[in-house]
Amino acid sequence: MEEPYAVEEGVFKAPLILPESLEHRRSWFESVMIRAQRRIIGFAERHSWKNLTLKSFFDHAEIYDTKKGFDRALTMVSGIAGPVEFPITYSAALENRVLMAVSPELYAQNYPEGVERNSYEKLLAHEMAHRLHIRILGGNENAMGPTWFFEGFAIYAADQFAGISPRPNSTEIQSIITGAGRMSYRKYGDVFRCFAQKASVKEMVEHAAEEDFLTWLRNIKEE
Length: 223
Prior knowledge:
This protein is of the alpha/beta class. 48% of the residues lie in helices and 10% in strands.
C-alpha cells in the first residue's frame, strides 16, 4: 500500500479503501479527509500546536457501508479478542494509524443527534483530534483526563455541536464532570466550552491528569 504524501503543510493524501457501493464517491471522500485535516490544523494553529500536525495522523483510511463491517474491522485493527458489537452510535475510530468510519448515511441514521453542517467532516476531525491530544501529552494516553474531558476536547477541536445547545447550568455541569459511564457527547462539548471560557485549552490539558483536576476546574468556574 502506498504511503501518505503531503499535499500541503500538515495535510496528507492517504490511501483510501472503499466498498464497491461507495467507490463512485471516492473523490468526495478524499476531499472530506483533506478538509477534516485542515480543520484540525486550524484548531492546532490557534493554540500553538501546529508543529504537532506536520506528521500524518493515519497511514490509510477505510470506509464501511455496514455497521457490522465497521465493528468487525475495528475489532481486528484494535487487537480485541473475539467479536465485539460496538454501540450503534460508534461511527468512527483512528486506531493503529488506520482511520475508519461508517458511511455518512449510516452515521446520520445511527446517530441523528450528530447531524449538522459538515458533520461527516467533523466526525473524522474528531478522531484526529484525539491523536493530536495524545501528541500534546507526549504520547501519554493516561494523561488525557476523564472521559468527558478528552471527548469534550475532540468535540471542541472539531467544532461539533457549536452554537446548538443552551449553556448548561451549574447542576448540569456537576452531573457531567462527576458522572460515571458515558453520556451525551453534545453535553460533553457544552461543558468543555463553558470551561474554555474560563481557562485556556492548554491549561486544561496540562491539568487534566491531576487528582485535583475537578477542584481546579470548580475554582476556575467560580472566579
